[in-house]
């Protein structure tokens, strides 16, 4: 029994693949480099210094204070720790 497609659930911008479309498909790697560059998601640029993800336990009041400063609080916390290391050079040895 053939089911009729539901017009409300049909995606006209992304139609179902037919066997003919599958036959014509080519791998991304076989596309010209210029087209691959255009199709690639630009994403985020690679950072010069890659930060390391860790788990750390902090006092609730310290964490709340940094979070209260808004977006970017983790970067500001990193800067505060960096300042502390500059002021206490023997602590980093």
TrEMBL record:
Ranges where the record places region Disordered: 1-46
Bias kind Basic and acidic residues: ranges: 1-24
Pfam families membership: BrnA_antitoxin (PF14384)
Superkingdom of origin organism: Bacteria
InterPro entries: BrnA_antitoxin (IPR025528)
Protein name listed in UniProt: BrnA antitoxin of type II toxin-antitoxin system
Originating species: Stenotrophomonas daejeonensis
